[in-house]
Predict the structure.
Amino acid sequence: MSEEPKATSSTSTSASTPLFVVAASPHVRSQATVNRIMWLVVIALLPALGGSVYFFGLKSLLLVLLCVVSSVLFDALAQKALGRKITPLDGSAVITGMLLAYNLPPGVPLWLPVVGAAFATIVVKQFFGGLGHNFMNPALAARAFLMVSWPTQMTSLWLKPNGGPLSGLDAVTGATPLSLVRRASEVAPAGVDPAELIRQANSLPLLKKLFLGNVGGCLGETSALLLLIGALFLIAIRVVDWRVPAAYLGTVVVLALVLPNSHLTPWFHIFSGGIILGAFFMATDYVTVPVTAKGRIIFGIGCGVITMLIRLYGGYPEGCSYSILLMNVATPLIDRLTKPRLFGALPRAKATS
């Protein structure tokens, strides 16, 4: 008699608590959301924003605000016009605006960021389906559009940074570091051998200025230190995959050492221009980067190769933005070639036989 209640209790417990739960995938869930990831990236970009204000003055803050506000506004207007859900505060448009501003010279007219933001959010992002459907990075596509449309404003309106000359060298005042070594024979002062100019470009004082950021350049790309602070934060919390930047920077280092036309140290190439900004904040864009681990390594290597080929053999001193855009276009092919085989599936030849 005493055994029956126990059996009844066991039966009722097993009936109310099933041993197997049948549910649709995904079975492993995360606390991460699109909004949370976007705003974490915004936080990681704030040190570089502070550096741009310190080095180039309050106009840099105005340019960033113009880009961000314009991006959010045009994004919302396009969503409304296309009948989509309006999500002005999901953080994606804010990131687009910040990255676009970071790729602009500090002396550009105030209308230029507005035009760039409209192109980035309406044409590149919303025309292709909105967040998650754009096939290339909106900020970099807008930068390329502005470069083609207004090359003078995008390549000549540099400002002398606070605490250092434009080129990083006291003897040269009219060139950024990349254009300095690209046109060494043209910008070298009277009596200075271009080879001596390149030697100074590889010197520790200039590399230190490049690392800290008190050199000429675009708003948010001059300080490698401030960008790395935000980048390491994103890697530590696993928002950014380390494979793309590691492959990108590693390729730049190798090619800077082995290519015959390279007269500069790998550190100069990494710290100058937009490689740090591009490798950690734009080449790692979830939408336009391959989904497989092997594909991301290939993507990073491709970015590094194209960047160095443009810098050393092209007619333009910087190649970071174009390298990422070209690899964005190759992303679907990379995903297809690196797609892992399904568990338990036979190779095609065996399956057909």
Notes: Residues 1-14 have pLDDT under 50 and may be disordered. Residues 58-81 form the longest helix (24 residues).
